[in-house]
Write a structure and sequence with these properties.
InterPro entries: AlkA-like_TBP-like (IPR055137), AlkA_N_sf (IPR037046), Alkylbase_DNA_Glycosylase/TA (IPR051912), DNA_glycosylase (IPR011257), HhH-GPD_domain (IPR003265), HhH_base_excis_C (IPR023170). By secondary structure, this protein is α+β, with helices and mostly antiparallel strands. The protein contains 13 helices and 7 strands.
């Protein structure tokens, strides 16, 4: 058993709300407040589970070795957004609407990621194209169950997102059998053939954007989602309808604004914390945007 000691309070229940289908292996599973999934370390899938001991202490268990703890810890802090949020909170206090979001979702802290690997992030973004997030997660769970890593530990099953090799072995027809359209399946297989995708994290935003949009079927929305939620870049996917709804409700009395206008608001008001604020907007739109007491 290991522990992540935090300098700030975290609202674990709120963090877990980001997993909209907690009972399905997307590959994340959340049961009774306990998060779990398989993580790849040096080519080996290991079981990892995490849960709060207190609002400042996260307990971590798994079948990894002591020497692997620091690698697991780094992955969890980045993936779950457990970095110190003090600067973010101070920034949000300077804007009336952002201060409201901070207070309503206090303890959510910093933004996490939607994937443990760049390939997982690109594949998930492709799956999400032009369908609801819930439907996309159901499709992802089918793919994970059929082609992903599965680790059993302490009587529980832990799932990992399929590796590029597993997707290439599954092929287009295998993905089609999980419910993907032919074009999405073909595109994910095409991406799976690429080498050194993890290096995209070290690329500049423009360079990574150009690379992603060089694939037929990856447009601005998909590329910006990957940049923000898989690569951790401070990019704001303003073409996302949920983001446009949230910004429009907060700043324009619900009158839906264009993506360019929302992008302008992000530049002017969100600055270097645009990616963090994006997660608050997702939460606001996904779970609370109809509650009039928030505005």
């Amino acid at each position: 058993m290991w522990r992540i000691e935090l300098k700030h309070a975290v609202n674990w229940e709120l963090k877990m709300k980001f997993f909209v289908l907690p009972e399905l292996p997307t590959p994340d599973i959340v049961e009774s407040g306990v998060w779990r999934r398989a993580i790849v370390l040096d080519g080996r899938a290991v079981a990892v589970m995490a849960y709060p001991e207190s609002e400042r202490t996260i307990v971590v268990e798994g079948n990894f070795e002591n020497r692997e703890w620091e690698a697991v810890r780094r992955k969890l802090v980045e993936y779950l957004g457990l970095q110190n949020p003090e600067e973010l909170y101070r920034f949000m206090d300077g804007d009336e609407k952002l201060r409201m979001l901070k207070n309503r979702f206090y303890g959510f802290g910093r933004a996490g990621l939607m994937s443990m690997s760049v390939f997982e992030g690109i594949a998930k973004a492709i799956i999400q194209q032009q369908i609801s997030f819930v439907v996309a997660e159901k499709l992802a769970a089918k793919i994970v169950r059929r082609f992903g890593d599965e680790v059993e530990w302490n009587g529980l099953k832990f799932y990992g997102f399929p590796t590029q090799e597993a997707i290439l072995k599954a092929g287009v027809e295998g993905l089609r059998e999980c419910g993907l359209s032919r074009r999405k399946a073909e595109l994910i297989v095409e991406i799976a053939k690429e080498e050194n995708l993890e290096e995209l994290k070290e690329w500049g935003e423009e360079e990574a954007y150009e690379y992603l949009t060089s694939f037929k079927g990856i447009g601005r929305w998909t590329a910006e989602l990957v940049l923000s939620m898989a690569l951790g870049k401070n990019v704001f996917p303003a073409d996302d309808l949920g983001v446009r709804r949230a910004v429009s409700r907060l700043y324009f009395n619900g009158e839906i604004q264009s993506a360019e206008k929302v992008r302008e608001i992000a530049r002017e008001r969100f600055g270097r914390f645009a990616r963090d604020i994006l997660f608050y907007l997702f939460l606001y739109d996904r779970f609370f945007s109809k509650k009039t007491e928030l505005v």
